[in-house]
Protein: Tetratricopeptide repeat protein
Amino acid sequence: MIPSFSPDRPDSAGPAGDLLDAQDVRLLVETGFMALMHGFVASAGEIFDGVVAARPAQEAGHLGRAMACLHGGDADGAVRILRRLPPSDAARLFLGLALHRQGEAGEARAILSEVAASAAGTPHARSADAILAGLDAEPTRGPGPRRD
Structure:
């Protein structure tokens, strides 16, 4: 029998949830992000897929999966994942980054500015400020060279 779960409850477990306790899930999330930092994008994606299966209502697995998409060059996939999440500071921060990578600088700037203002003094706000500073430092991209 598959255990019941509710995606509306943040503490609810998915079908694999009874196999993993909160500490197990936390370790998997940490392992997934370490894998990303070391370039093991496909493995990280699989780890985060497991986290999503175990805890579908928690954002950590979804955020990790979105970051795996970004590291793998799939900004569109990351944006799709992040747009489906409730608008937490972390989800909006990563959405701003993904939109920037997708080439949507205006929307990215608006979202990152909102995070910087609404989450002032937090790591999310500091990260948003840093990304915004990087956007400001980038040269303006024109239409590119003519190809007649």
About this structure: The longest helix spans residues 22-37. Residues 31 and 44 are 8 Å apart (CA to CA). Residues 1-73 form one domain. Helices lie at 22-37, 41-54, 59-71, 75-83, 89-102, 105-118, 123-137.
